[in-house]
Structure formats: C-alpha cells, structure tokens
C-alpha cells in the first residue's frame, strides 16, 4: 500500500514522541525475557538492586538499544504508526478504542 507524499509527512511530535513510543513498547515485547529477568532480580534484591542487578540491567539495555538503533525496526514502527493514523483519519476512532470489545448483549 503506497501513501501519497502528504500522507507520509510526519510532524515533529510524531517523529520524536509517538513513533519512539511504539518502538519502546515493541522492543519491550521482543526483549521480554530480559525484562522478566531484570524485574525478578529487582524484586528479589530490594534496596540492593542497583548493585546486584547490574548484569540483568546491562542485558536489558543492550537488547533494547539494539532495537532502538535498528533503522529497519524504526521503519517498521513508522509504517505501523502511519497505518494507525490513516485508520484514525478515516474512522475518527483511536486504535485503543477500536480494539476494545463492544458489548454483545444490550
């Protein structure tokens, strides 16, 4: 599906806020093992988590950073955002509201 040039123009807030937000969410999903390891370590270590969880924190940062720096991943998230934006402009309904199930009985 090809968008017209005007449809692909991104505002500053879209480039610097909205697309990176999608990137963070998707990167966390893809790095879920590292997120779980770090979360477990933090829960188990309490106040000493800063010292005890360095290895888990480094692994999580490395995983997330690899996605943040990947131009193909950025393009994937950008295309997802553009599809959501196009759908919103067409229907007027945000994605989150569309994905919520409507009541089946009235």
Automatic annotation (TrEMBL):
Family named by the database record: Belongs to the CMC family.
Origin superkingdom: Eukaryota
Alphabetical list of Pfam families matching this protein: Cmc1 (PF08583)
CC terms in the record's Gene Ontology section: mitochondrion
UniProt entry keywords in alphabetical sequence: Disulfide bond, Mitochondrion
Location(s), subcellular: Mitochondrion
InterPro entries: Cyt_c_biogenesis_Cmc1-like
Protein name per the record: COX assembly mitochondrial protein
